[in-house]
Amino acid sequence: MRRLTGIAVSPGIVVGRAVLLKQNPLVIRFPIGTDRVEEEIARLEEARDRSRRQLHQIKARVANGPGAELSYLFEAQLLMIDDPMLVARARDLIASERVNAEWAVQHAFEDLSRIFDGVEDAYLRERKGDVADVVGRLRMNLGRGRGRGLELFRDVDAASVLIADELTPSMAVQVDWQKILGFASDTGSRTHHTAILARSLHVPAVVGLGQASQAVKPGVMVIIDGTAGEIVIDPPAGMVEAVRTRVAAVSGLAGARTSARLPASTETADGTPIGLQANIELPDDIATARAYGARGIGLFRSEFLLAMTPADTLTEDIQYEAYRTLVAGMAPGVVTVRTFDVEEDQLLAWPRSGGVGDRSGGRAPGPSRGPMGLRAIRLSLDRRDVFKNQLRALLRASRHGRLRIIFPFVSGVEELREARAFLVEAAEELRARGEAPAALPPVGVMIEIPSAAITADVLAREADFFSIGTNDLIQYLLAVDRTDARVSHLYEPLHPAVLRTLRMIVRAAARHHLPVSLCGEMASDPAVLPLLVGMGLTDFSMSPAALPLARQVIGGLRLADARRLVARVMRLTTGAEIERYLARARGGMPARPVSPGSESGTGGSGDDE
To answer: What's the whole-model pTM score?
Structure first.
C-alpha cells in the first residue's frame, strides 16, 4: 500500500482498478527534405481541421449535458487553434527549418509558453493549460488519430478510476464517467478548468500528485479521496471493503435526494433541530445544493469567480449579478458569502490605483509568501479598491434575499473592526447612488486561525456569527502542511487539541448567544458528526453530496447519547484512541477510510476551510 497526497478538487470517495492515461510523450525532431515541406504542411493543416471538428463536437456535447455552462472553454480552444502564434507559426517553422510537424507544433507551443509564464495575471497564466490541451490534440491528430477520444475508454471495465499525468478539459469531457468513477493526476490546481468540470460533474478528483502516473500500475486497485486530497495505491482488502460500504450508503441515500421527497427540516431522534447547508463555488451549484436538500448555503467561496473571470474584468456589476443569482436562487434560505480568500498573485491583474481606495499607495506587490502571507482578509484590507468593489456588489445583492457576509482568515478583533468599517463605507457610497440596502447584512468571522479560536470570546462580542473552518484550523493548530508527504500523517482531525479547541469555540459562542456553524468537511464524516453535535454544534455546511448521509446520521442520534460520547472521548489522550473509539461506536465503520496517518483514519478535506 502507498499513499500520495495532492490537492482535493472535487469531493467524494471512490475505489476501482486503475486505467492509465499519459498525454505527454516525447516529441522527436527530424529533418525533412525540401520536397516534403508541402506534404508536411498539408499534414499539419489536416490535423488542424480534424482538431477543429472534434472541438466543435465536444462543445456541442458539453452544451447538451451536465456542466453545460462550461462549453465556453471549447469556444476559447477553437480560437486558440486559429491563433497565428500556434499553427501558423508551426507552418513557418516547417518551411524555414525543414522539420517534422510534431516538432514544429511543440516548438511553437514552447514559444507561447514563455509568453504565458511572463504574464502577471494568474488567471491568464493558467490559460497556458488550455493551449497545451489544443497542442496535445494537434499532436494526437498528427499521429493519424491514434487513440482518439472515447475510443480510449470504449473497452475499459466499469468501476475504474483514471490516473493521468495530465487530464485536459477536452479529454475530460470525452470520458465515460459511468465507467470512470474518479480521477487523479500529476498536475493541476483547484482553479484549473478540469477541476471545475469535475466538480460540475460531481466526480471525485485529486490533482497535483506529482508522480501518480508513474507510481500506479494499470489494473491495480486505487482509492481516490477527493475530500481529503489523497489516493491510496493497492490498499488492503479491509480498507477497500470499508470504502465500498461507505460509497454504497451514500449512493443509496443520494437516490432519494430529490428535494420534494426530503423532510422540511432535519432533527435528532429526540427532536433537536439541526441546520444542514451546502458549501458551493459557483452560482450554478445552487440547483445541486437544492437537489440534495440543502436549506441554505453555508459557504459560497467567492474567489471562484476569479477562476471564471480575469480579476481586472470582475467588475462590481458582474459580481452583483453572481451574488444576486445566488441569493434569489436560494430564497428563502440564507446564503453566506465568504469574501475573496486568495493570495496576492491572484489579484495582480487588478491594477493598483495608489489612490484613496488602495492602502498600498501603488507599491508593487511582493513575492508570494504562501498560505500564511498576504491573503484573504489581510489582502482585502490591503487592496481596499478590490474589497470595496466586492462589498458594494454584496450589499446590492442583499436586497434580493437573505445574505450573510463572512470574512476569512481573521486573526483578531482589529481586523474584524476594520473590515466592518469598510462595509459601512461601501453602504454609504451606495446610499449616495440611491442603491443602499435597508439594513446591513449580518457579518461573521471564519474561525480558522488559532489566535481567532483563542480569542473567540472577544470576537463573539462584535461578530454576528461564527463559522468554523476546520481544514485550515487543524492545519495551523498542528503546524502540519497537508501537502507535504513527510508530515501529512500528523494531520489529525481527531487530535485532542483540535477537539478541545472546537469545544472552546462553541462554548464561547454559546455564552454570547452567537450562532456558530461548522463548514469544514469534518462534519460530513458519519462517525465524527455525533461528536460535533454532542459538543453543541447545531449548524453544519458541507458538500451537497454529503448531506443525505449526514441527515440519516442525525435522524438516528439522541442528544443525550451524543453528549455522553463527548464526555468519553474527551478523556482519551490520542487521536488514534479517539478514532478507534468512534469507529466502534459507529459499528465498525471507520471514521474516514482514507486519510493520512492510519489505515482507517479521519482525513481532512478541501484546501481552504
So the answer is: 0.68
Q: Any idea what the Cα angle at residue 130 is, between residues 140 and 192, rounded to 5°?
A: 125
C-alpha cell at 172: 475530460
| pLDDT for residue 25 | 58
pLDDT at 352: 60
Grid cell listed for 556: 438516528
CA–CA separation, 59 and 37 (whole Å): 33
Using DSSP's 3-state secondary structure scheme, residue 517 falls into strand
Confidence at residue 65, expressed as pLDDT on a 0 to 100 scale: 66
Pull the grid cell for residue 257: 435526494
| Residue 396 phi, psi (nearest 5) | -65, -40
Report the C-alpha gap between 19 and 202 in whole angstroms.
Answer: 19
The pLDDT value given to residue 147: 44
- Give the pLDDT of residue 35: 87
207 DSSP 8-state letter = E
Cell 527549418, residue located:
97
Looking at residue 464, its amino acid is D
In the numeric block, the cell 494531520 is attached to 491
Question: Does the active-site annotation cover 193?
Answer: yes
* 3-state secondary structure at position 556: coil
Catalytic residue, from 107, 192, 193, 202: name it.
193
The segments of the chain whose pLDDT lies below 50 read 145-150, 256-260, 356-357, 588-609
Read off the C-alpha cell for 485. 508527504
Q: Which residue, 487, 491, 453, is CA-closest to 469?
A: 453
The two most distant CA atoms of the chain are separated, in Å, by 86
CB 512, CB 457: distance < 8 Å: yes
Calpha distance 35→27 (Å, rounded):
22
pLDDT (0 to 100) of residue 191: 59
Rounded Cα distance, 387 and 303, in Å = 12
Cβ atoms within 10 A of the Cβ of 29, count?
12
Q: What is the dihedral angle through the alpha carbons of 334, 534, 583, 232, rounded to the nearest 10 degrees?
A: 30
Q: Which three cell numbers stand for residue 62?
A: 458539453
Cell 484550523, located at residue: 473
What is the structure's pLDDT at 603?
Answer: 32
The CB-based long-range contact list for 315-318 (8 Å cut-off, 24+ gap) reads 315/389, 316/389, 316/390, 316/392, 316/393, 316/396, 317/393
CA distances (Å), origin 37, targets 83, 84, 144 = 21, 19, 18
Burial class (CB in 10 A: 0-12, 13-18, 19+), 438: exposed
Positive or negative torsion for Cα 53, 54, 57, 63: negative
Give the Å distances, CA to CA, from 232 to 44, 164, 235, 242, 318: 41, 15, 6, 13, 41
H/E stretch holding 162: strand 160-164
Which segments of 22-63 are extended strands (E)? none
Q: How much is the mean pLDDT over the chain? A: 82
**pLDDT value at position 7?**
82
Which of 192, 400, 495, 519 is catalytic? The answer is 519
The answer to whether residues 316 and 280 touch, using CB atoms and an 8 Å cutoff, is no
Distances (CA, A) of 494 to 114, 490, 606: 45, 11, 17
